Amino acid sequence: MSLGTRQGTGALTSVASAPKAPLLARRRLRLYEPIQRRTYWLLAVISLCLVFALWAGLSYAGAVQNLFLPTPTQVWQAAVTESNTGILWPDIGASVLRIVLGFIISSAVAIPVGLLMGSYKVFEASLEPPIDFMRYTPAVAFIPLTLIWFGTSTTQKLVILFIAIFFQEVLLVMDNVKNVPVQFVDMAYTLGLSPAKVVRRVIFRSALPGIVDTLRISMGWGWTYLVVVELVGATNGLGFQIQQAERYLNTPEIILGIIIIGMLGLIFDFSFKAIYARAFPYMSRSAR
Amino acid sequence: MAATLVLKGVEKTFRSRKGTVQALHDINLTLEDGEFVSVVGASGCGKSTLLRIVAGLEPATAGELTLDGAPLLAAGKDRGMVFQQYTLYPWLSAQENVEFGLRHLPKKQRADEARRFLDVVGLLDFAGNYPFQLSGGMQQRVAIARALALQPSILLMDEPFGALDAQTRSLMQELLLSIWERDRLSVLFVTHDIDEAIFLADRICVLSTKPGRVREVIDVHLPRPRDFSQQMESEFLVLKQHVRGLIHDEAARNTGFARILR
Fold first, then answer.
1. Residues A269, A271, A273, A279: what is their CA dihedral angle, to the nearest 10 degrees?
2. Which of A183, A184, A282 sits opposite B130 (nearest CB)?
3. Which chain B positions have a beta carbon within 8 Å of A183's beta carbon?
4. Which CATH superfamily is domain A70-287 in?
5. ipTM of the shown complex
6. CATH of the domain at B43
7. pLDDT tens digit string along A78-125?
């Protein structure tokens, strides 16, 4: 009753302008209002098509020289050529393998360390300063050093990816853990759990949705740095392919590389979101 | 099953960089076997702190706490706790939440116990529902079932119905009393709602503020089993008037209302 005033006025106006009112009300955007699944996908596709249309318009019309911005046809041809000569798929495979490995190694360390840092102040105090230091040193600055240490090996790529991902990820995991409601922990104690069990069965489990989101974001950083790492001192991979194409001013291949990376990123991101929605139905806004 | 809780000279001082605040001073209180005691007081009187100390979630600065003669040092299953905030784990179903404290039992027995106590609070049909699929009142009923399932010797309740609407709250009070009539647990019940404190309790412990100390312990002689209609009877109203008088002036004084309400 007390909160109904706004809806009340809404009802009054709709009575005043009888038939048209519901239609008008429907058109107005409401905060956090859920939309239909089909509407969501439709909007997503339209926005992607608009970007594509802008590119096609600029390139086909010749508004920008094709050397600088190739047409979609040219890029498609580059894809066909690369696929036929057998370098496209191995390059994609090499990049995906690197990012997945780098991501798994970083996360395998970041999750337990972040869990400890968020749960025990001793760990936070002793680990946060060095981690912060590393976080602010650009990962790219370590490329020359790692090349001296590990050559152009896979190890070198993974070390850079680790530096790029881990130091951000671990702090986000720590925050996820700190956001666990304190009453969940209190409750667990009164239910007879030991501190170690509270960490495992309550704190970790409660922070898990946030951690999965952190993983998704970390994967994004991974893609950024993967390309950086492959631009310098690599012998295959999507970044290497882009760098090779640049030497011959082969802009269609450059654009192709960029599009593939974007699409792979989109696929990974959607996979994470799908896992999240499936595993944590209680986290959706409508559930609360 | 029930037990006697004794608090002797319990003190609580919070220390911070800004200085020390004495939250509780010289609290002496005995909760007899199977007795229902309410603790009321103005906000900030330390009543929740007192309950947290009994629960073992907060150490007392000084004083002695014993349960059936044994000193209380840490949290444990001998004291079942129900908080005001919804504390069901959102990733577990109602039944799994109740089972959570029963890990020591074999799986089958654990499930049976959980279902037995869900039945006590009338939610057996909702055993498979997740907290987000339950109303606030239902969530608190599951929380009560979870505390009862531990078979504690005393139930500690920290404004368990404070977040519920008035109708649900009154039904929850009756449910709690019916459970208590049956099991005769000792209950220590913290609330700021004077009606609630009187309606439920055998005795009311009124705390004063800053520091919190026992202002008065009042016996409630309303006949049991109680029902809702007793809240209109003169004996109830006289008690209410008395407790309100104890709390009201102090609440006004300590929250800055006194100056503007003259």
1. -150
2. A282
3. 83, 85, 87
4. MetI-like (1.10.3720.10)
5. 0.91
6. 3.40.50.300
7. 999 999 998 899 999 999 999 999 999 999 999 999 999 999 999 999
